[in-house]
Amino acid sequence: MRRPALSFPASCSASHPAGAERSGNAGIDGRDEAVTEDRIRAGTWMTAPPLTVPAHALLSAAVACLARSAEEAVPVVDDSGALVGVVSKTRILAWIAEGGDMRTPVEAVMETDVTAVGPDAPMEAVLPTPGTVVPVVDDARRVVGVLTLGDALRAVLHELGRTSVRIDSVLSSVHTLSVVLDAAYEGIVVVDAQGIIREINSAYCRFLGVRREEAVGRHVTEVIDNTRMHIVVQTGIPERGCVQRVRGQEVVVHRIPIWDGGKVIGGVGMVVFRSVSELVDLLERIQETIRAESETRANASDESKVVSVPMGNRKGRDPFATLLGRSEALETVKRLARKAARTPATVLITGESGTGKELLARAIHAASPFANGPFVSVNCAAIPESLLEAELFGYEEGAFTGARKGGKPGKIELANGGTLFLDEIGDMPLAMQAKLLRVLEERRVERVGGVTSRPVTVRVVAATNRSLEEMVRKGAFRADLYYRLNIIRLHLPPLRERRSDIPLLLSHHLERVVRRYRLPAKSFTKEAVSALMAYPWPGNVRELVNTVEALVNLVDGPVIRSEDLPPHIRSAAEMPGCRDAEEAKGDRSLVQDVKRAAEERERERIVEALSQAGGNKAKAARLLGIHRSTLYEKLRKYGLLPSAAPPAKRAT
Predict the structure, then answer these.
(1) Highest-pLDDT range among 70-84, 120-134, 481-495
(2) 423/417 Cα distance (integer angstroms)
(3) Whole-number mean pLDDT of the chain?
């Protein structure tokens, strides 16, 4: 088999080289360079686990793999999982057009001149072009992920949204953005908070029929037909997959705001497909390849099966994408969760109710080696204590009255080979905690009424909205079980601590609810979004979802205004900043009056103590319960020191 001509861009290798130059993005906002570099390295932004296809598989298997993938190409690996090439949709379609046989091995069609990078390679050195992927490999050349043009764009947009400098400084200092913009096949435009175009790529300029110099510096509405970029930067709500008519042609676009410290500083617009007909053509080509693959499936052998390295998410998509949000707090949790998913260690997820603990648990399962096994969820607070033991551990025939003939396996057995999610673990009775601890330690389970134990291989993820540490101190939770569960700790922040994610959540769930009920499209006004961002959301994401659903069903028009919001949300938005100057002045006067009254009362107590002590300051300090030096400070504060009574004379 031919080995590919693997090449690594400058400063890139399978492991980070000693003395490699820091990324140009490091230190933009004064943060630690190592932390910044970790954020923009290939391993952070790659799509993992990747879909791969064996080199000895048939092209029909490659077509099936590409049909399931969101990308235009997939890596080809040998029996050990090492990279040997890349096969693309374009390559396969060209092969079919030339009369090639779908039963041809992939290695005969794949491209072997492949550029690969290591997980520690800086993103600025990675340049995926449209229709290609850049494999990410470890020291043994095993494929651990892929980088696409979309991954590179996400990395750049994250840096833009994270940095604390102005957008014009970002555009002038982040070299990666310019490289990605110029390399992108479809149109991309960047605007500031006022809707002024700050950057636009050459592909979009050609499509619009303007020169870059003519577009930059003008308002986006003057350059792009029917755009809503200026509205997106006002509301902060992203718009994805929208159809827009530009120069008489319908295109599919994304419009994404750039956030900085709770404020929108700009936005990015991307043309996903230059025409709707292009999207239809692509779907038809995919359907044709799927039909061709199904015709040859009967002749395909076992060697044509698609494998994934490592095992896990078979669709090639990021399982953690279900946790919507780009705030630093949530991204930190996702990064830790990705690392935890690779191990079989027990995970404890904490967080308030409604923050998405089960979503995180499912994502960990999907990204783990247990992904091919079942995901079994048990709500320890919802099952009566008398039934919990049988539900968890199962029971043998005749174990109790009404027991099913032949017995029944418990949730732990059903999760064998997969993940057991114990939700609300803090509500588990103490008796069950002891039995669960034994299962975690021995990895064996014994049914109720049974005499033998069964081995189980299960990944345990527990979650709670209670303080287990406090429960351990009070004796309400076993300390040994707590330490057995608290191996990898992940804390999901409440929504009030990641307010920058609120517009994204509002947009996503607004579109979802509108589609579910088949209603006309709706949108929020800027004032409504501001009010929703000011609300503390005690019910977190669950409360936000319910609120959006109620607004979609109750508001008649296409626009949801601030006056349409529930009263408790409007009042929360009005409390901090909507009082006039006279009310604020009155509040300050009230505080000052209370302070003056307290000081007057303190002065009277000091004078009274001095009188009782006959002017003896040491005795007066003891009567007041303060140190003598403190008394002298207060005497000076209230002007009592010069007029204080003289100390009593000692008896001679």
Answers:
(1) 481-495
(2) 19
(3) 76
- Which of the 8 DSSP states describes residue 82? B
132 touches 86 (CB < 8 A): yes
**What token pair was written down for 549?**
């659903």
> How many whole angstroms separate alpha carbon 403 and alpha carbon 400?
6
The average pLDDT across 633-638 equals 80
According to DSSP, the β-strands at 444-446 and 523-524 are unpaired
Please state at what angle helix 581-612 crosses helix 628-637, rounded to 10 degrees.
120
Question: Which residue stretches of 418-493 are H helix?
Answer: 430-442, 468-474, 479-485
Q: What is the rounded CA–CA span in Å between residue 393 and residue 412?
A: 6
DSSP string, 163-201: --S-HHHHHHH-HHHHHHHHH-SS-EEEEETTSBEEEE-
Mean pLDDT, residues 350-360 taken together: 93
Residue with the two structure tokens 């977190």: 540
- Reference 146, options 361, 1, 308; nearest CA is 308
pLDDT tens per residue, range 42-81: 788 787 777 888 988 888 888 877 776 666 788 999 888 8
Q: Which of 427, 348, 418 minimizes the C-alpha distance to 380?
A: 427
3-state secondary structure (DSSP) of residue 308: strand
Report yes or no: 501 and 326 within 8 Å, Cβ to Cβ.
yes
DSSP state of 626: S
